[in-house]
Amino acid sequence: MLDCAIASGCPVPDGQPVSRLADDMADGPPAAFGAAPAICRDLLELFAGVTDGRLGQGRDHPVAAVLALAAAAVVAGSRSFTAIAGWAADVPADVLESLYRRCGAIRPGAGAPSKCTIWRVVTGADTAASGAAAAPG
Question: Is the pLDDT reported for residue 33 higher than 80?
């Protein structure tokens, strides 16, 4: 089952480092979690501002969805593109489809992105633009 803040609607508790949060979640979600769908929307809105560095056509996987999956996989402990792709492949189809619909996918039932797609999106992302979008202002 998917144990991430994006799918469960649970925020990261204030002041808790992500690595410590990942350790804590190994035994189940902390009691400090509460429903916060606005946080999920904000993350997807932030990722939606990242330009697509991929060339060509046939993009079934929105940048925001791929970045959200990659971020959740890293928080869950993935440390390579292979591990991220494996984690994304384990996301239940209905959760993946819901994420893709929220990101405006043309084909929300496209399935999980491949390792190659994840690599292209992550390495092709305009980091300056995404950093500026994330800055408080």
Answer: no
**Which residues 6+ apart lie within 8 Å of 92 measured at CB?**
1, 2
> Which DSSP symbol is given to 9?
T
Is residue 51 very low, low, confident or very high in pLDDT (cuts 50, 70, 90)? confident
Domain residue limits, the chain: 5-134
Q: What gap in Å lies between CA 129 and CA 50, rounded to an integer?
A: 7
What is the spatial distance between Cα 137 and Cα 125, in angstroms, rounded to a whole number? Answer: 21
Label residue 135 left, alpha or beta by phi (over 0 means left) and psi (-120 to 50 means alpha).
Answer: beta
Contact status, residue 30 vs residue 13, Cβ threshold 8 Å? yes
Task: Report pLDDT for 39.
Answer: 53
Strands, E, within 32-115: which ranges? none
Structure tokens given for 21: 């949060």
Average pLDDT, the chain: 74
Residue 70: exposure state from Cβ atoms within 10 A (0-12, 13-18, ≥19): buried
Q: In angstroms, rounded to a whole number, what is the distance separating the alpha carbons of residues 88 and 102? A: 17
